[in-house]
């Protein structure tokens, strides 16, 4: 038997569902969504079948450019995931040669793979100052290929953290991804969890961390950008 309290809970559940559906859209998707809507309108005038295909494509594009709010941990001694996706590789490597740091120190590289269904907004892993930005034109190899970090198109960001050590994060284009957006500027002060860019339609993000950071993630773990802690700073 239902009562007024049951109805209240039903309405609350419905309101929560609608709030989830009314998810914010990243500004990088506005133009593409507008073009998709226009093309869909033309297709509807030509054929119902083509119009339905256009509607499906438009819905997917809107879904792809969703930009959900994230709750950033209130802890200055942690490093956050820069991207949504799956950690598919953790290894010790030298810093990317394009940054010309002349350092022989090995960093811990955490590689996060994003498929087309992941949120594609990237976020700052911890607070600091952007020291250097380096864009590298390259190929669009499959990002499961071992050469992806050296051959693919990518945007490298070198940041001096508030703790005094360098952190590097790299946006990498893949077979489908054909455009990297990075809104950072050299000399800019940034906060952990701050949105800084987007890679359109499938990609990878690598985060390079020094030995001062103890990793807290494993291969196969799911990441939520700006929320998942991937490392803790050793004191």
Q: Could you characterize what this model shows?
A:
The protein has 235 residues and is of the alpha+beta class. The protein has two domains: 4-64, no CATH class; 78-233, Glucose Permease (Domain IIA). Helices cover 24% and strands 33% of the residues. It is built from four helices and 14 strands. Helix 2 (30-46) runs antiparallel to helix 3. The radius of gyration is 20 Å and the shape is elongated. The model is unreliable at 1-19 (pLDDT under 50).
What is Rg? 20 Å
| Share of residues in helices | 10-25%
For the largest sheet, list the strands in their spatial order.
9-5-6-7-11-3-2-13
What is the correct CATH architecture of the largest domain?
Distorted Sandwich
**What's the CATH C level of the largest domain?**
Mainly Beta
- Tell how many strands the DSSP assignment holds: 14
Can you tell me the overall shape? elongated
C-alpha end-to-end distance: 58 Å
* Strand composition percent: 25-35%
The largest β sheet comes out as:
8 strands, antiparallel
Q: What is the tally of helical segments?
A: 4
**Tally of distinct domains:** 2
CATH topology value of the largest domain? Glucose Permease (Domain IIA)
Global mean pLDDT? 83
